[in-house]
Amino acid sequence: MSAHDDTLPAHGHDHGESEIHISLGGYVTGFVLSVILTAIPFWLVMGKVFAQSSTTAMVLLALGAVQIVVHMIYFLHLNARSEGGWNMLALIFTLVLVVITLTGTLWVMFHLNSNMMPGMHTTKTLP
């Protein structure tokens, strides 16, 4: 026996970190919620439930965001306690980068007309 054997955890112990308990019921619940959150947008679009397409788009975006949360909780098992909070920090960092990228892309695309060279706005110069 070496002097360091007593520092290793005994078999079956996990250094006191909370363990994620995965069950079939959790996966079934996540699957049912995912199917419902997928069927509702199809029904909204195919049935033309809302008169304005902008309302339909906003509802679809909201349902998509809810479905992302369902997948993160039930399938990826992501919560504030997993990995000591590092998973949540990585998620927040990723979301910030995605928002910056999308905002910058939309800003550039909507301001392309002001960045064009003079005279390119008219189609009379084309052969």
Automatic annotation (TrEMBL):
Cell compartments where the protein resides: Cell membrane
Primary site of residence: membrane
InterPro entries according to UniProt: Cyt_c_oxidase_su4_prok (IPR005171), Cyt_o_ubiqinol_oxidase_su4 (IPR014210), Cytochrome_c_oxidase_bac_sub4 (IPR050968)
Source organism, top-level taxon: Bacteria
Keywords: Cell membrane, Electron transport, Membrane, Oxidoreductase, Transmembrane, Transmembrane helix, Transport
GO cellular component, one term: cytochrome o ubiquinol oxidase complex
GO molecular function terms noted in the UniProt entry: cytochrome bo3 ubiquinol oxidase activity; proton transmembrane transporter activity
Membrane topology, record value: Multi-pass membrane protein
Ranges annotated as spanning the membrane: 20-45, 57-76, 88-110
An annotated GO BP: electron transport coupled proton transport
Protein family: Belongs to the cytochrome c oxidase bacterial subunit 4 family.
Subunit structure: Heterooctamer of two A chains, two B chains, two C chains and two D chains.
Main function: Cytochrome bo(3) ubiquinol terminal oxidase is the component of the aerobic respiratory chain of E.coli that predominates when cells are grown at high aeration. Has proton pump activity across the membrane in addition to electron transfer, pumping 2 protons/electron.
NCBIfam families listed in its UniProt record: CyoD
Protein name (Swiss-Prot/TrEMBL): Cytochrome bo(3) ubiquinol oxidase subunit 4
Gene this chain is encoded by: cyoD
